């Protein structure tokens, strides 16, 4: 397409319409152009070819350009949303180009003039608003990444906006935290200034995010104009009222807003003012930990099997979105966590209120998204209806919850705040919507028929006239039939002729002859087998009908506009109510699952405790139940400091394959996440000192997209843990070092444990098959051993899934391999090899290593007691006096120095 303009100059001119198309397309080169022609969006040239392949629609042609056929493909307006959804999910961006005037208007300018058209909106993954294009249970964030400064001193920030609900947040981040923060926000689209897009240090990260990354001109991120842009958007003189923002945050917020403005063209979504999220208030969970723990989706990308799928009992889309958000961003401030837990506890203790709340909520529509569509002028009567219904529900809820706490003042603060927000809704708005809107609502305002009879006298009159005229037509038809004696005479309507009288051919000829004198029946059209007539009477009536119908529609549209205006004027309180409804849904849903699954309230404080009694893995437990398999075996886990200790413990978990080590590791990480998101947890008792960062290295996966092998990925992630974990962190490591040769792996695991114990001091679970490591428990004060119990029965192994103190002596790998169906011959051979290896180890046991190796030395601690041998080069240097040297002697001295240094290096 880009070259097309150049081509045209050299050849004959394209048609005026093609000229218009080419101009609009040239302004939107990175989008498929949906070019409105009547009831279709048409695409031409490469766009047509791409769309026809992507959507499986017919590729046709229309006219010629430069002597060649113009490929064309089109989608009908009424089905456009479905096609848009498919295109967006395939990574396309679409520019929607509408007709901006009636074709009749264009004709007035001359027969060759083209209808004015322009792009009214860019549809991109991060800027969707239509119900059909959105996933109800997932937020649809557009994020923007900004960097201020360069090199070591560079500051990063992210801003993210969901235009379908108005949510707008900003947060500072750091280079190392970027991938974790982006994973937490989970945006559908990330915009970055073009210089960051091509920055080497970010290339791997951005490439990993795929087509959802959109580079934009850096000017929109410009720090100097950022504050102005934001203030302008919200119509305020200064941002002071929104709180303080760093330069990087302003830049990101400005970049995100600019993109919203660019894609929405003239429309202005009703966004909340940007809210700052402090990194210290959210548990840091890096990208791979998030993926490993399968918080919101499994490693294969599905929601089924994830933690959120196992615990989500919300009944509204907004509730599901909030639950997901809370799960993705657990808190680190115990008071804030307690506020959430208080709300859940209240719903656990008040099952009737819970049931009532959930019942009202389940029929409560998506207030935030309906509001957003109306504010963007993309809403229909049903969106108004949804607001009305949600308002009705809100009033019922506020009353119901108030009644559940008649003494009032005893409601937990989160619920009280939600009830407050619901009670603050303008009562007249709900009433107005209820009286104005009909019971059954059409999807589009253009068809009318959504205003309740009795609401507007004028409308009722216009409608009566319109409908009555129709009866008059029926009567007229009977009269004409009577008058002409043609029983089959019909009065019909079509778009070209309007109302007309139709009779069969024979009757038509007769009528023309009989009527020749009076010319009462005016001939309009002769069809095959039929004649069409009109009369002055009918023409008059037609005008009256048309104007009455038109009038009725105009009145309806003005009622619509008035209602939208009232709704938009109340958007602040409606948004607060939408948030309140979501909070109530989440709290009640977490109470519901707590009761159904016997979850209990965790105690979260500022200690370093980590004490779980009878903890379970919520997903595995439900899966086992669904398969009607053995019940899940609950296990304890204590990682907090013991008596007299100031830092947390490291527990080495050994045990057979398939014994349940990974499950145990993950369940404790998940319990920490659940506790800090403000949910009850699958344990009899849980006490957790807030976890600032959670690290989990569970299971290995190649990252071929980034050109890293399994082992490399494992080492990169282990390095991140060793460099970042604090004593407040929780670290869960599964089989570190297994991806390489045994001795290398064992050595790396060994060094890692010592570093975690001595330097990081974090609470750690470490599962391994290197049994030699269990010896470390004797050497390192806070290292403990735990193992999974098994029973051997007739040479087979029976897993008990019970974690007990102590070390395993063997892995039962061969027994598990046998269970998995490895050929008998292989099993026999493996047994033979194993017994040889074990015999060799008995002669020269690796387990004894722990006694031989000195303790970990890399602590930046005490200088070593033994002085290092003096460097001979330094000794030699002392004997040289530069003032005494001739140039030749100086050169010789230099050679001698070099030699002495080489000698010293050898000794080191
Ligand atoms: N506490 C438990 N109660 C009941 N069943 C369990 C329990 N823990 C694990 N299981 C079952 O055992 C299976 C294997 O568990 P898991 O993957 O945790 O073993 P593992 O010791 O990590 O094995 P490997 O060393 O081979 O990775 C699980 O899929 C689950 O079905």
Automatic annotation (TrEMBL):
Which annotated residues bind ATP?
655-662
- MF terms (GO), sorted A to Z: ATP binding; ATP-dependent DNA damage sensor activity; damaged DNA binding; mismatched DNA binding
Question: One Pfam family of this protein, by short name?
Answer: MutS_IV
GO BP terms in the entry = mismatch repair
- Which parts pass through the membrane? none
**DNA mismatch repair proteins mutS family domain segment(s):** 729-745
Enumerate the CDD domains for this protein: ABC_MutS1
Q: Which PROSITE patterns match?
A: DNA_MISMATCH_REPAIR_2
Alphabetized, the UniProt keywords read: ATP-binding, DNA damage, DNA repair, DNA-binding, Nucleotide-binding
Q: Record keywords: Cell cycle included?
A: no
User: Where is the segment annotated Disordered?
Assistant: 859-881
Q: Which GO terms describe its cellular component?
A: cytosol
Q: What does this protein do?
A: This protein is involved in the repair of mismatches in DNA. It is possible that it carries out the mismatch recognition step. This protein has a weak ATPase activity.
| Family, per entry | Belongs to the DNA mismatch repair MutS family.
What name does UniProt use for this protein? Answer: DNA mismatch repair protein MutS
Per the UniProt entry, what species is this protein from, by scientific name?
Pseudoxanthobacter soli DSM 19599
């Amino acid at each position: 397409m880009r070259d097309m303009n150049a081509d045209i100059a050299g050849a004959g001119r394209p048609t005026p319409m093609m000229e218009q198309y080419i101009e609009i397309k040239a302004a939107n080169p990175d989008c498929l152009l949906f070019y409105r022609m009547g009831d279709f969006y048409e695409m031409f040239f490469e766009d047509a070819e791409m769309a026809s392949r992507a959507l499986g629609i017919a590729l046709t042609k229309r006219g010629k350009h430069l002597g060649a056929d113009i490929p064309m493909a089109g989608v009908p307006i009424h089905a456009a949303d479905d096609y848009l959804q498919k295109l967006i999910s395939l990574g396309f961006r679409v520019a929607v180009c509408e007709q901006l005037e009636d074709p009749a208007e264009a004709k007035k300018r001359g027969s060759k003039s083209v209808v004015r058209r322009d792009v009214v909106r860019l549809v991109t993954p991060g800027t969707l608003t239509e119900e059909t294009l959105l996933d109800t249970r997932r937020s649809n964030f557009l994020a923007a990444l900004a960097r201020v400064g360069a090199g070591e001193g560079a500051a990063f920030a992210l801003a993210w906006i969901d235009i379908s609900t108005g949510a707008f947040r900003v947060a500072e981040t750091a280079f190392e935290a970027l991938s974790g923060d982006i994973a937490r926000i989970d945006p559908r689209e990330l915009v970055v200034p073009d210089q960051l897009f091509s920055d080497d240090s970010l290339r791997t990260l951005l490439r990993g995010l795929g087509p959802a990354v959109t580079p934009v001109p850096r000017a929109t991120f410009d720090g100097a104009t950022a504050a102005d842009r934001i203030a302008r958007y919200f119509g305020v003189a200064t941002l002071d009222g929104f709180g303080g923002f760093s330069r990087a945050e302003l830049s990101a917020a400005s970049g995100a807003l600019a993109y919203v403005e660019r894609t929405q063209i003239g429309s202005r979504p009703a966004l909340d003012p940007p809210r700052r999220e402090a990194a210290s208030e959210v548990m840091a969970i890096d990208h791979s930990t998030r993926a490993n723990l399968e918080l919101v989706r499994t490693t294969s990308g599905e929601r089924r099997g994830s933690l959120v799928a196992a615990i989500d009992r919300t009944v509204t889309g907004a509730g599901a979105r909030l639950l997901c958000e809370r799960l993705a961003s657990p808190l680190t401030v115990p008071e804030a966590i307690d506020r959430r837990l208080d709300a859940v506890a209240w719903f656990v203790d008040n099952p009737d209120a819970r049931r009532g709340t959930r019942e009202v909520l389940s029929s409560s529509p998506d207030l935030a998204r309906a509001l957003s569509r109306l504010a963007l002028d993309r809403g229909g009567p049903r969106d108004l209806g949804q607001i009305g219904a949600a308002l009705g529900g809100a009033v019922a809820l506020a009353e119901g919850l108030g009644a559940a706490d008649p003494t009032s003042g005893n409601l937990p603060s989160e619920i009280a705040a939600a009830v407050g927000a619901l009670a603050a809704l303008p009562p007249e708005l709900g009433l107005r919507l209820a009286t104005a809107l009909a019971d059954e609502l059409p999807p589009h305002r253009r068809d009318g028929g959504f205003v309740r009879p009795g609401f507007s006298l004028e409308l009722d009159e216009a409608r009566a006239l319109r409908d009555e005229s129709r009866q008059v037509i029926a009567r007229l038809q009977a009269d004409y039939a009577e008058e002409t004696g043609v029983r089959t005479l019909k009065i019909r309507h079509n778009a070209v002729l309007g109302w007309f009288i139709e009779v069969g051919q024979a009757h038509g000829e007769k009528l023309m002859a009989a009527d020749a004198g009076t010319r009462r029946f005016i001939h309009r059209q002769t069809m095959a087998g039929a004649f069409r007539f009109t009369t002055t009477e009918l023409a008059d009536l037609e005008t009256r009908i048309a104007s009455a119908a038109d009038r009725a529609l105009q009145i309806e549209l003005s009622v619509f506009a008035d209602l939208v205006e009232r709704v938009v004027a109340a958007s602040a309180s409606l948004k607060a109510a939408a948030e309140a409804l979501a909070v109530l849904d989440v709290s009640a849903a977490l109470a519901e699952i707590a009761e159904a699954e016997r979850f209990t309230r965790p105690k979260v404080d500022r200690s370093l405790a980590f004490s779980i009694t009878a903890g379970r893995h919520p997903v595995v437990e439900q899966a086992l139940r669904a398969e009607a398999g053995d019940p899940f075996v609950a296990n304890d886990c204590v990682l907090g400091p013991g008596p007299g200790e100031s830092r947390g413990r490291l527990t080495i978990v050994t045990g057979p394959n398939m014994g349940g080590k990974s499950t145990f590791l993950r369940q404790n990480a998940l319990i920490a996440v659940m506790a800090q998101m403000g949910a009850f947890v699958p344990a009899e008792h849980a006490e957790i000192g807030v976890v600032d960062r959670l690290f989990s290295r569970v299971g290995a996966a190649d990252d071929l997209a980034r050109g890293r092998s399994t082992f490399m990925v494992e080492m990169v992630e282990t390095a991140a843990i060793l460099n970042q974990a604090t004593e407040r962190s929780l670290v869960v490591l599964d089989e570190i070092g297994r991806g390489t040769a045994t001795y290398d792996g064992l050595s790396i695991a060994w060094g890692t444990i010592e570093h975690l114990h001595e330097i990081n001091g974090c609470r750690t679970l470490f599962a391994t098959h290197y049994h030699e490591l269990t010896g470390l428990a004797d050497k390192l004060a806070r290292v403990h051993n735990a193992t999974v119990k098994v029973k051997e029965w007739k040479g087979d192994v029976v897993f008990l899934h019970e974690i007990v103190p102590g070390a395993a002596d063997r892995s039962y790998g061969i027994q598990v391999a046998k269970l998995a169906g490895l050929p008998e011959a292989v099993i026999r051979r493996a047994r033979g090899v194993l017994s040889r290896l074990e015999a060799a180890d008995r002669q020269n046991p690796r387990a004894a290593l722990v006694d031989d190796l000195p303790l970990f030395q890399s602590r930046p601690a005490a200088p070593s007691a033994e002085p290092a041998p003096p460097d001979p080069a330094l000794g030699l240097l002392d004997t040289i006096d530069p003032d005494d040297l001739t140039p030749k002697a100086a050169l010789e001295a230099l050679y001698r120095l070099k030699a002495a240094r080489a000698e010293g290096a050898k000794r080191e």
